Amino acid sequence: MIGEPASTSSSGNPFADLGMSDADTRLAKARIAQKITAIMRDRGLTQREVAKVLDISQPRVSEITRGQLKDVSLQRLMELVKSLDMDVEITVIPNPEPAQRSARLVVREMA
Questions:
Q1: What is the pTM of this model?
Q2: Sign (positive/negative) of CA torsion 35, 37, 40, 44?
């Protein structure tokens, strides 16, 4: 139709869709930060209380909950979520579609 903007399907990773570098890592960090935020909410904890548990500053907790993750590594986020009594599992598996896509980093939440 004339005048309608073109649209494309999402890859499932908005960082990749925007052509950003390290898109898989950015998405993994965002998902772990979302989990930290959800744990905070589910446990009824304030940012100050979470900061004490994680041994970080309250402003750093605020940055994490707002998705400001540029200055925090994926490794550090994994350590923080572990401090909230969450297990982190890393599984290395073969890429089943090497001809169709590059290998990727994926964070999945288990129920």
A1: 0.82
A2: negative
